Predict the structure of Mitochondrial substrate carrier.
Amino acid sequence: MRGGDIQEDGNPHELHQRRRLVLPTAARELLAGFVAGAANVTSGYPFDTVKVRLQSSAPGQYRGAMHCLCTIVRQEGVRRGLFRGLSSPLVGGTAETGVNYLVYSRVLDALRPDDSSATPLTSVAVAGAVAGVALSIVLGPTELIKCRMQQAGSAARYPGGPLQCLREIVVTEGGLRGLTRGLGATMAREVPGNALFFAVYEALRRSLLGAQRQQQQQTARGLGHGVGEPLTPGPVSGLTDLVAQADAPPYGRDAATGGRRATSDTETSRPGSPEQHGADATRHNWLTEAAIAVFCGGTAGTLMWAAVLPIDVAKTRLQTAQPCSKWDVRLWNHWVMLWREGGLASLYAGLTPTLVRAFPANACQWLAWEVVMRGLQDHSERAK
């Protein structure tokens, strides 16, 4: 029973089985993160391959991103060229994104104010930075293998695929310690990048959801007036309260109705009535929230990658460098050499494919996260 006063219907054994299928909050966050990571990696991998080739190649080898893409497809094909080495980042990306969202959500819950006010964006950024440390530990070794596999000539060097690459690193580069190559550079990219990523997403999302809910309130007040009556402004809680509502994820309280009471199946709704309008709004609310997730996720990912790309370029050079070569140096030395090599053009090598990849990949990631979390939350509510 809920609250000790409502008798639950249904077979007790069936109720018990349904409740066993309800995942704890942390497990839901982890599972949604796994799906989000798979969506990101799969949708963005061809662009990432082009980016790594541009970053790790000698100056002048490719005339640009399109020339690099055409060269890869012509010489190596789509599957063996653009998607070569996908298995390692797919496993790693799935795991690291799951860890990323799990740690971010848990830290954010710890930092969330006790009252109903919106969580400050500084707390969102802090939670993202802490999650960046955790995901770097998972991401570092898989990114090392991915970068090696995406290099030109990797098909001949590693005919056995990512597992052969893994064995060679362990055997020739100091055992398991070799897998930590570039870990510090990965953290230098992920900690500030993750803070920016989550903060931008949340800021945009709050703004758009706040505007959406304000419009819904105005529409609802208009439906409450008689025909011909003027639409006069009623008591509005204000943008601050709307932002506080938007601070709760769409899979949170009253997730199935987007924070509004849905019209039940037993209610009779007149066409054009407030009840009918509420039912229509509920049915179409998911589309609006999906569009918000796509826009905010794509924008956050694009801004994040534009900010951290010089770190990523140096990290790629570091992880693809041969031991004891001139590129086998610290991150700072890579920046100095890149600047001497070509200035900003070298520091921002691969900018075009990176930004082209960033929007769709991160849009897919956030959309998958929101959809899976909504579905799991709805399942949890129905199973109670």
The longest helix spans residues 274-320. Residues 1-8, 225-246, 249-276 have pLDDT under 50 and may be disordered. The chain is about 70% helix and 0% strand.
